[in-house]
Every structure is written in C-alpha cells, then in structure tokens.
Amino acid sequence: MKEEQIITIELDLAKDIKFRNPLLLSSYVREKVEGSKEEFYLFVDEIQMSDEVTNPYNEGGKKITFYDALNDLRSLSNLDVYVTGSNSKMLSSDILTEFRIKSGNPR
Question: Over 60: is that where the pLDDT of 103 sits?
C-alpha cells in the first residue's frame, strides 16, 4: 500500500480545522479518491469536533452534519472509512444506529 492511499484527518489539530466543515471534508476526500482504481483508507479522529453547517442550497433547511459527509463518502467503493472520537455521546450506540439507518448499507 502506498502512503497516498491513507488519508488521515485530525479534527482537533489546526492543520485540519477546515475539515470540521463536512462539505469541505467530503470534497477533499472525493478529490483524492474518485476516478482511482486503488483502495483508500480514511481515518477521521475527534469527530465530535465537526461542525454543522448551513445547507448552501437550502439555507432554511436542515443543517449539514458529518453524517451527511460520511453517507456521501460511503458511495465510493474504493474507500474504507474509520471514525474515532473521545466524546462517548457522539459514538454511542444511538448515534451509530442513526448512521446505519441513514446510510442504508453498512459495510
């Protein structure tokens, strides 16, 4: 495996602070992965630091969250996603269940 196939984002570090925006996170990863035949691995640490952002297409609608970004990225067949965090509420079984229901296709 090549080093370029591993994407690490640490949301508690200043170098990755822009990726607290789920739209930027998704866009960044898609740029690296789409169109490649190689398998990629995404590691996102401290996911509880992610922000909710206004939907640019519907400002009065629901906010966009990291669930939306993860659901978007799961459509990439050559990407495995690993998410960690230190906030037990964010990673509780209720939250994981919500992601599974939204995704409809857990890996």
Answer: no
List of E strands, the chain:
6-10, 40-45, 79-83
Task: State the angle between helix axes of 66-73 and 93-103 in degrees (0 to 180), rounded to the nearest 10.
Answer: 50
Q: Is residue 102 within 8 Å of residue 71, measured between CB atoms?
A: yes
Separation between Cα atoms, residue 32 and residue 40, nearest integer Å = 9
Q: Are strands 79-83 and 40-45 parallel, antiparallel or unpaired?
A: parallel
- What is the CA angle 33-80-56, rounded to 5? 60
pLDDT digits (tens, 9 = 90+) for 34-61: 999 999 999 999 999 999 999 999 999 9
User: The pTM is what?
Assistant: 0.79
